[in-house]
Specification:
This protein is an alpha+beta fold and 262 residues long. It folds into 2 domains: 102 residues, Pseudouridine synthase I, catalytic domain, N-terminal subdomain (Alpha-Beta Plaits); 133 residues, 2-Layer Sandwich (Alpha-Beta Plaits). It is 20% helix and 28% strand. Strands 1, 2, 3, 4, 5, 6, 7, 8, 9 and 10 form a 10-stranded mixed β-sheet that branches. Strand 8 and strand 9 form a beta hairpin. Helix 1 packs across helix 2 and helix 3 crosses helix 4.
Length: 262
């Protein structure tokens, strides 16, 4: 039986999603917990491979269970074996045609930035921070230049393993809520560090370091050295995973309504 599960996690205690030799990945903790309920080791595949320090308000994974269990066992039972920073919040039996990674048609990331002269304390590690005032309208004008199908090599990490740098960016929006800026990006796929590199460039525009049209020039140049430094991971969340309607998978997590995904 193929089972899909949805989970959320605080990325600060892990070295990213993917399993590591040091067993420090979210995948490591989740596979161990699922194995305890399944009665044997299982392999998990996930919708997105988040980096160290990156969070998820919605991550979708699947595994093939060797024995039938009530769906509540894959939620409450698995949660009883997980560390506090990870929680499964639904499970769904799927057909064999479903794949958590390869069936995805759109992913979304949210970046929450604290824009205040004094660094955050209570939300440290869960929001990014920039101390100088930011011009949101200039940032919006720059973000519009990114929309569409482009070669995003200028925003790609050197270690990126994606086959192609060409992605269809369908949404690049930002809004201010008090002292917070909330960025939402949606695309058919993302490159390694792509969102953090986009945020870094938009912050540079907002801080007056470059005009909005500069971002279009960076995009066209396809040269990583022309873009701003990679922004901190703290405020980045995998927040949206969309599958074809036939699978009946909810595309958002439990905390998608407000500015804070957690």
């Amino acid at each position: 039986m193929r089972v899909a599960i949805a989970l959320e996690y605080d990325g600060r205690g892990f070295c990213g999603w993917q399993s590591q030799s040091a067993a420090c990945g979210v995948q490591d903790a989740l596979e161990e917990a699922v194995a305890a309920i399944a009665g044997c080791r299982v392999a998990l595949a996930a919708a997105g491979r988040t980096d160290a320090g990156v969070h998820a308000s919605l991550q979708v994974a699947h595994f093939d269970a060797p024995h039938a269990r009530p769906l509540t066992a894959w939620v409450r039972g698995v949660n009883s074996r997980l560390p506090d920073g990870i929680a499964v919040f639904w499970a769904k039996e799927m057909g064999g045609g479903f794949h958590a990674r390869f069936s995805v048609v759109e992913r979304g990331y949210r970046y929450v930035l604290f824009n205040h002269p004094v660094r955050p304390g209570l939300l440290r590690g869960r929001v990014g921070w920039h101390h100088r005032p930011l011009d949101v309208e200039s940032m919006r004008a720059a973000a519009r230049l990114l929309l569409g199908r482009h070669d995003f090599s200028a925003f790609r990490a050197a270690e990126c393993q994606a086959r192609s740098p060409i992605k269809d960016l369908r949404c690049a929006e930002l809004r201010r809520q008090g002292d917070y800026l909330v960025f939402d990006f949606r695309a058919d796929g993302f490159l390694h560090h792509m969102v953090r590199n986009l945020v870094g460039c938009l912050v540079q525009v907002g801080a007056g370091g470059a005009p909005p049209e500069w971002l279009g020039e960076v995009l066209a140049a396809r040269d990583r050295t022309r873009a701003a430094p990679t922004f901190m991971a703290d405020g980045l969340y995998l927040s949206r995973v969309i599958y074809p309607a036939q699978f009946g998978v909810p595309g958002e997590g439990r905390a998608s309504g407000g500015f804070s995904p957690a």
